[in-house]
Design a protein that fits this description.
By secondary structure, the protein is mainly α. The chain folds into 2 domains: 65 residues, no CATH class; 64 residues, no CATH class. 85% of the residues lie in helices and 0% in strands. It has 7 helices and no strands. The model has no long low-confidence stretch (mean pLDDT 94).
Length: 129
């Protein structure tokens, strides 16, 4: 099979998921230790994730996928994530209510800005074409 950019990106996700599940099944404590280290510095983790996300976005666009197609797939993924989080709503909703929304938005300014730019870009594409 000839692997293009899209296939390579999908293969990366498949490999990471398979490794994660295997480690989680064999030794969940090692996985917990690993994620504690990864998230021990949220600023660095966020920066690395942001850079990787921009690289992936670049390669998706370079491969001919439109922002509208990316946003449509994002909706699908968001709904899958919602299924996973629904089980914990009774714990998450009270925690969210206790947060100061202004402080949260200040802390998540880059994340919020990226989403707003992606949404504006997608809306522009839809309205222009």
């Amino acid at each position: 099979m000839n692997f293009g950019t899209i296939e390579i990106l999908a293969l990366i996700l498949i490999a990471i998921t398979a490794i994660k599940l295997l480690i989680f099944i064999v030794n969940p404590h090692w996985w917990y230790s690993f994620i504690e280290k990864v998230y021990s510095s949220p600023a660095i983790t966020s920066l690395i994730a942001f850079i990787l996300a921009m690289i992936v976005l670049y390669f998706l666009i370079l491969s001919g996928i439109t922002i509208v197609e990316i946003l449509a797939v994002s909706l699908f993924i968001a709904l899958l994530i919602a299924i996973g989080f629904a089980k914990y709503a009774n714990k998450l909703i009270p925690w969210i209510r206790d947060q100061n929304i202004v402080s949260v938005l200040k802390e998540l300014w880059l994340y919020t800005l990226v989403w707003l730019l992606l949404i504006a870009w997608g809306a522009g594409e839809l309205l222009i074409s």
